Amino acid sequence: MGRTIIEFEDEHGVVTRYRRHENGRGNVATSAKVDPSTLVEPTAYVESGARVGRSVVVSGGSWIDRDAVVLDHAMIGAGVHVGEGAVIGRGAEIGSFSRIGAGATIGDFARLANDSKVPDGSDVPAGRIPRMLPRARSAA
């Protein structure tokens, strides 16, 4: 049985080739490194240069951007975007529909609630469950 290769061209004309990951059938760029023990669900994408460690779960609809790193035993919820060059620590749990900014670092065993937003370049310390503050209301 041969590998399935698909190609997508982005808005800048850059073509990325993806293969189906052997565990979960998700879409992994040919230059990405994903451990065979990791589950990449069918509608998830791992972009060029990304590295995903052992026993990670990348849930459906999630996108691991270019050059991002996800360390062993992390859990990436559904519909999560891990920004370019971001690092997700060992055993970290990222809640569904969260956005991790480019270059952000999530420490080992940190837990983010669903729909969390981590700005570009931010650092969530190891083992922390960040408290999310409500947005300030605009004066009407």
CATH topology: UDP N-Acetylglucosamine Acyltransferase, domain 1
* Poorly predicted residue ranges: 133-137
* CATH homologous superfamily caption: Hexapeptide repeat proteins
The succession of helices and strands, N to C, reads EEEEEEEEEEEEEEEEEEE
CATH C-level class: Mainly Beta
Which of globular, elongated, flat, extended, rod-shaped describes the shape?
globular
Structural class: mainly beta
The helix tally amounts to 0
The portion of residues assigned to helices is under 10%
Number of DSSP E strands: 19
Which second-level CATH architecture applies?
A: 3 Solenoid
Proportion in β-strands: 25-35%
CA-CA gap between termini: 62 Å
Please tell me the overall pLDDT: 87
Could you say how many structural domains there are in total? 1
Strand order of the largest sheet: 1-2-3-6-9-12-15-18
Radius of gyration: 15 Å
Largest sheet: 8 strands, mixed
Explain the overall architecture:
The termini are far apart. An eight-stranded mixed beta sheet has the order 1-2-3-6-9-12-15-18, with no helix packed on it. Helix content is 0%, strand content 33%. The chain has 140 residues and is mainly beta. The chain has one domain (5-119): Hexapeptide repeat proteins (UDP N-Acetylglucosamine Acyltransferase, domain 1). It is built from no helices and 19 strands.
Structure at a glance:
The protein has 140 residues and is mainly β. 0% of the residues lie in helices and 33% in strands.
Top keywords for this entry?
UDP N-Acetylglucosamine Acyltransferase, domain 1, mainly beta, 8-stranded mixed beta sheet, 6-stranded parallel beta sheet, Transferase, 140 residues, 19 strands
